[in-house]
Amino acid sequence: MTPRPETFGSFMQCCLENCFSAAVIILVQVMNRRQQLANIERAKKEKEMEEEVKKRKEEEENQARKDENEEHGESTTENETNKDGVHPETD
Fold first, then answer.
1. What global pTM score does this model have?
2. Domain count, the chain
């Protein structure tokens, strides 16, 4: 039994419409996933930059303290003590 041309044509049209709809859905899913990955990457970069800024700030604060100690005639090694509370020079 062969299908009638009008029935076969409408069947093919329905198949093509379904394929097109599926392709659009897949395309939208791919685009959404790419956007998610871009957002994740951007968040990672922002976090790295924040950590770098924090690290620089800590280094600047440490350098400022060191400079302040040197201005007052104190060296950092004179202020350091070992676990027993004794200056390293007296060990």
1. 0.52
2. 1
